[in-house]
Amino acid sequence: MLRFVVRRLLQLVPILLGLSVLLFAWLRALPGGPAQAALGERATPEAIARYNELFGLDQPIWVQYLRFLGRAVQLDFGSSARTGRPVTTEFLERMPGTVELTLFAMVFAIGVGIPLGYLAARRHGSWLDSSAVIGSLLGVAIPVFFLAYLLRLLFAVELGWLPGSGRQEVRIDATHITNFYVLDGLLTREWDAAWDAFLHLVLPGIALGTIPLAIIVRITRAAVLDVVNEDYVRTANAKGLSADTVRRRHVIRNALLPVSTTIGLQTGLLLSGAVLTETVFAFGGVGSAIYDAIFARDFAVLQGFVLMLAVVYVLVNLLVDISYGLLDPRVRVR
Amino acid sequence: MSIEAMPPEGALRSDVPVLEVEDLSVTFTRRGEQPTRAVDGVSFSVSAGETIGLVGESGCGKSVTSLAVMGLLPKRGVQVGGSVRLAGTELLGASDRTLRRLRGSEMAMVFQDPLSSLNPTVPIGTQVTEVLVEHREMGKREAATEATDLLDRVGIPDPARRLKEYPHQLSGGMRQRALIAMALACSPRLLIADEPTTALDVTIQAQILELLRELVVDSGTALVMITHDLGVVAGLCDRVHVMYAGKVIETADRYELFARPRQPYTGGLLASVPRLDAGRGVPLTPIRGSARDAIPWAEGCAFAPRCDNAQDDCLTEVAGSTVPLEYDGPGRELRCRHPLSYPQQTPAGATASGAGR
User: Fold this and answer.
1) Hey, are the CB atoms on A241 and B134 less than 8 Å from each other?
2) Which of B111, B126, B134 has its CB closest to that of A240?
3) Using CB atoms, which residue from A232, A240, A249 is nearest to B117?
4) Which end of chain B is more exposed for a tag (fewer CB within 10 A), N or C?
5) What is the mean pLDDT of the segment spanning B100-120?
6) Among candidates A251, A224, A216, which has minimal Cα distance to A235?
7) B343 class by beta-carbon count within 10 Å (0-12 exposed, 13-18 middle, 19+ buried)
8) Secondary structure letter of residue A168 according to DSSP
9) In percent, how much of chain B has pLDDT > 70?
10) pLDDT (average), residues A169-177
């Protein structure tokens, strides 16, 4: 087990190295450098040259790369060209928002998706089944930004039931320890702040969770339909176990195997930043930060964020693989 | 004996055969398709300590018969008719609760493919103990001890360790033994074994059959062997029912059947068994055609298109003139108008097995 984890963590090294080379080359191939973005279109060549000198952008690209690498191993990705603050600090501020949003979206998707998929399969061919199938098709097909916009327009702007932008009302003078706003509110016993932060998660969370929800419904339904026809379910029934035991121990457990893979992959995807959803809801997570950084040609932020997200992604996948081993003894690592 | 007044547990009687199947029929219906009658008027009975064989090629309805007895057929799209009595208790139409109570405790089944019949994500131990916990109301620890004994009894070495393992960690023979252990957990009166040795190699086959035989002898279990393997029949079964296209076409004691098969189909089955004393290069003698060539029973005899003895009266244009299953000497029944005949008919009933009955 430990060897497995260590091996997977070591695999991170080549992944990150390769990714950093790609990123570095790709960003520098973009038209319009950071100087231009920072100083504006009418900046004089001298000003641009001085800016480049200041930030070391006049050096050969491989020197720049090695310097970047040397600092990156110490978790120093430089400072944002836009705000002047260290990239790592910005990331640590932004990531909790995205994590909260992802958790909300996945809890929503799993909590609704698995029961719905299960019921659809057990009532195979019923109206519930058909509507689950059609609904999940719609869920995958609908563009996220459109859904996000629609939800915001309906529930925030028109009906005013839920907040439609930001992570928390500004007027609430909340203390932030961890930058997980809901958690912070609970830790400091500022219940209203926690509740408010939670409410801010609802609309973007639902928008973000729709695609995973639709996928989970479909996979669960298909998996349950498969499993109920398995020989071992027949064996379980032949043993005279109660319907409940058969369902719990023999059907659901096995049906969850493919579902857990999907959940892992989707969680990883959501964690790497929901650029569109976060932008629509002006939600201060990594997604909207990346969006801003692209427009500002903020190399330091882009490089740092993408590399750190890659680490997060690999770690999430590692967790998924470990949990898969818990569910399925056949792939359990020893 | 006042049967009506008995409590549910006592509803099972010991003065009647363990299993009586009468005129069992199973019809599969699908919307927009002709209903398929997979089992058609099958009757047989098994007493304690007796082994019967249901023999036939794939698709003849033998597995469906066993699933119907166990009440394991899907409810939708399946019509089951006739009567199935377990020690006097009618099972067809019994409630799901009653069936679940009887399954595993009074009647158990061993399936064909031991790997797919075991849950891959649950340890063998749990799969054995869950029967004990369910039917014998044992605690976890007690059940674990009992499970160790059971695995030991079916010949699994190092049972305590095996309990913690998963099906994929066991060999094929051990998996089948584990399945048998589960079936035996509550000492059922009836055990149905559906081709229990098909997925195993020959040496293991022999061991498993020996295990089943011991069981019948030691605990008086009534055993229904479902098989297409005549070797299994020869070694194990007291009485044999040969099935074709959903109907029983010949019933006889084991020795009778092997010595003098009457139905040409049975004869063909026996003739198609490879023989060690046949010369090299001598081709096998198959039954010509395949089971798909069957005609509806209502038009005479389903086997007629493949039968060498078939004559005009085996095939009638008029529906409803099915060849009947008729008395064919003591202990024998036959569904055939032109059976195989033998020059010197030994007086029926003179054979050892016939006399013992």
Assistant:
1) yes
2) B134
3) A232
4) N
5) 90
6) A251
7) exposed
8) S
9) 92
10) 71
Contact status of A239 with chain B (Cβ, < 8 Å): yes
Look at residue B51 in the predicted model and tell me its pLDDT. Answer: 92
- Three-class SS of residue B22? strand
Q: Does B135 touch chain A (CB under 8 A)?
A: yes
pLDDT, residue A122, reads 87
For A154, the token pair is 């309906």
* Nearest-angstrom CA–CA distance, B309 and B16: 39
A26 class by beta-carbon count within 10 Å (0-12 exposed, 13-18 middle, 19+ buried): exposed
Whether the pTM exceeds 0.80: the reply is no
Q: What angle do CA B259, B262, B267 make, to 5 degrees?
A: 70
Terminal Cα-to-Cα distance of chain A (whole angstroms): 5
- Decide if pLDDT at A29 tops 60: yes
CA distances from B191 to B10, B70, B180 (A): 20, 10, 9
Q: Which CA distances in Å does B314 have to B245, B247, B282, B305, B325?
A: 15, 16, 32, 9, 14
Axis crossing angle, helix A87-122 with helix A127-141, rounded to the nearest 10? 160
Q: What length is written for chain A?
A: 334
List the structure tokens of A210.
């729709």
CA neighbor of B224 nearest in space, from B108, B356, B318, B105: B108
Most A CBs within 10 A among B31, B109, B121, hence the mutation to make, goes to B121
Residues in chain A closer than 8 A to B100 (CB atoms): 237, 240-243
Name residues whose C-beta falls within 8 Å of residue A153's C-beta, 6 or more positions apart in sequence: none
Work out the angle at residue A287's Cα, subtended by the Cα atoms of residues A284 and A289, and round it to the nearest 5 degrees: 60
